[in-house]
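lol ok so funny story. i was supposed to be doing the assay writeup but got distracted and ended up predicting the structure for this chain instead. priorities right. anyway since i did it might as well share w the group, maybe its usefull for someone
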Amino acid sequence: MRQLPIAHKSPASGVQSRRLVSFVAGMAAGMSLGLSMARAADTASEHPQTPVAASASAPAAAASSLAVASASAPSAPASASAAPVAPAEARPASLQPTSTPPLLMRSGDGSYVKADLASLPKVVVEQPCYQYNNYWCLKGTQWEGQEKVGRQRLAVFQDPIYAARAIAITMHAYRFKHNLRTPREIMTRYILSPDCRKSGPGTAKCTHMWGLVDKYAQRIGAALGIGPNEPMKIFPSQSTVNLERARTLFREMAHIEIGQTLRVPDELIDKGLERAGLKAN
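and the output, tada:
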């Protein structure tokens, strides 16, 4: 197995970064603010997170933990004042973030360049998932690197690398614990509360959320070059991952949550997969 490759991107020039400011501000009013705002109206929605105890320095142990991920992970309290987990200083050195790759920002021609975070409009930087280093809007449980539980019961991460690790573990559990293979199956669990999954789209409370399932299943399928009901083929085995397909899936899911203006770089996704104990196939 090969180690996950880390790509290198050239940062935008100062002039190019300044030109992005007016473009980003102009599209902020119409951009997606992320699915977390839609979920705020459905506070029962939960992601079945199952943190892995092993660090990235022991991939075999981590993969084993992933394979038997338990659904009994303790639920985060609804209060935003929940006690934080152990401080970063107490964590093993192997779990400490190392040079987190910067976010990318969409430029006027549609390409993505290194984000000038100081110039991002208020509507972008005030999103809870952005502020919490939680680009996939995962609910708080007892994730490695989780400092506390914030608004909407979202995990507040010490560093985005921990969020990337957490989404890798979540998607792995979806596949091997819950046998979810297609974009529609993934989005049904990722978006909907248990009540809405059980009752279907017939109730007024759940109609909108089921509509989002259809919308985002189509979007993720299109990004992967498949239909919404076709297998995604992200994990060839319990310990390996199709790197390019995982990058595509995680990128699109982050777009759903924090909008199209920002993009999660491949380097961050790669680091999250590696820390989850997964190897590129």
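The first strand starts at residue 104 and ends at 106. The chain has eleven helices and seven strands.
back to the writeup now i swear
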